[in-house]
Amino acid sequence: MLTAPAMAIKPAGPNAQVAITPAVQKAVQDNRRDPANVKRDAYRHPAQTLSFFGVAPGQTVIEVTPGSGWYSEILAPLLHDKGQYVAAVVDPMAVAEGRGRDYQQRSRDGLDKKFAGNAAVFGKSRVVAYDPKAPVFGPANSADVVLTFRNVHNWRSSGQAEGMFKGFFSVLKPGGVLGVVEHRAKADVPADDKTGYVGQQQVIAMAKAAGFELAGSSEINTNPRDTKDYPNGVWTLPPTNQHDAADEAKYQAIGESDRMTLRFVKPGK
């Protein structure tokens, strides 16, 4: 088994004590994970984060817009024998022809290649495509958990956030959990804000408007060194590193962004 970096299994800030479940810890330490991804555990705290959201074998878990599959490498093994991991990606054909469609197609192709290249890990996982203008992630009341990591700012800027949260609510069973991790602004920001950060109360308001109840928040992914005032927004920081080479040490010392970690519940159970 791969030993996770020491920082990856320690709380990341005040009030961050989370009881890590053995099943989640085993999945995080799986030696089939990409070593480059493992190095980022120190910033993303996957063991604490997934345990806080209550992710466990036997569940149907939908991860919305998984990108290159960073969390897929943990969730797929965790749910391989009992449960179902579903990666929900944007349907490229639902996006207007041009750069946007090309980006979504590259993203889909990359994830498909990753899954096809390691059947032992991803062979039981499913990929579903959704239309961001009218998102459906699966049959109503079918999922135990929906997860999204650092995506809300994109949905807000494209005017899709309301529909996305409604889609999450629809697919979850009564009592199901929505877990959200997002770059945290100092305060509320305009819908067209280009920094990549979102106000925590804004995210809570969006979820409540869709019908969710806030069931908990954690400082697992806090970073007090993040001043949130950079020339290229959150993308100035690692891992994107959109900054002058001369400032490399400065931004590496800050690390990845300060993030809210919110757990919502669909009422009714």
Automatic annotation (TrEMBL):
GO terms for molecular function: methyltransferase activity. Gene3D superfamilies: Vaccinia Virus protein VP39. Keywords: Methyltransferase, Transferase. It comes from the Bacteria. SUPFAM superfamilies: S-adenosyl-L-methionine-dependent methyltransferases (SSF53335). InterPro entries: S-AdoMet-dep_MeTrfase_Alr7345 (IPR016980), SAM-dependent_MTases_sf (IPR029063). The keyword Transferase applies. GO terms for biological process: methylation. This is Methyltransferase. It comes from Stenotrophomonas bentonitica.
